[in-house]
Write a structure and sequence with these properties.
The chain is an alpha/beta fold. It has helices at about 15, 30-45, 60-70, 95-100, 120-135, 150-160, and strands at about 1-10, 55, 80, 140-145, 180-185, 190-195. The chain has a single domain (about 1-85, about 120-200), classed as 3-Layer(aba) Sandwich (Rossmann fold). Strands 3-2-4-1-5-6 form a six-stranded mixed sheet.
Length: about 210
């Protein structure tokens, strides 16, 4: 049985300052680092004694999430550009307000690009697909994937066997710090045990001091 765990990176600076994420290379906040540490501790307990491979987007907010997680797992993250967030082109480095006021093409289909130099959802899907197939066809049994909201929504649709066109109507999109567990059974059936589980980053009073 293959066990895949996806982790949406934890709280990033751009979640607090009103700026666009995308390919702008934001750090985690201090809270984000604490949240990622919590995820690592939980996963250590759940994966005790198992060999684990962890892949991460090379953008800092995902990379830093992965770095906190692997402190508890005794391994190193493999950085993959395929796991980067969707590229929104010229609005990178701009505010969310600027994005909303300057959209060149509203996204009504999976082929629309908000900005001419950015990616459509189909573009991002095609970028992710070879990595998805690599993981599915590989021999590793326990895989952690640290990425971003848009990219993991595409992963979720792929895993469920949905075509890219389904993104007209379906968006399985989680919050920062969400952890999902997927299993491929011996008969090939795709199972989902948890989706965007936020209990991994639950805070207590001591954490907030």
């Amino acid at each position: 049985m293959k066990h895949m765990i996806t982790v949406q990176h934890t709280e990033s600076v751009h979640h607090k300052n009103g700026m666009v994420g995308s390919w702008t290379d934001w750090d985690l906040t201090e809270l984000g680092r604490i949240q990622a540490d919590h995820i690592g501790k939980r996963l250590k307990d759940e994966l005790e004694g198992k060999d684990v491979v962890i892949y991460s987007s090379d953008l800092k907010r995902a990379k830093q999430t992965a770095e906190e997680i692997v402190k508890h797992l005794g391994t190193e993250p493999v950085l993959r550009q395929e796991l980067r967030e969707r590229n929104l082109g010229k609005c990178c480095g701009k505010s969310v307000r600027w994005l909303r006021e300057n959209i060149e093409c509203p996204e009504k289909t999976v082929d629309d690009r908000m900005f001419s130099d950015g990616e459509s959802k189909r573009d991002a899907w095609n970028r992710l697909r070879p990595f998805y197939e690599e993981v599915m066809e590989g021999n590793d049994e326990n895989i952690i994937i640290v990425s971003h909201g848009d990219l993991l929504s595409l992963w979720n649709a792929m895993y469920l066997g949905l075509p890219v066109e389904s993104l007209y109507d379906v968006d399985i999109h989680g919050p920062a710090g969400g952890v999902s567990h997927f299993y491929i059974a011996d008969d090939g059936k795709h199972l989902v045990r948890h989706i965007n589980d936020m209990s991994y980053i639950a805070m207590n009073n001591r954490d907030m001091k």
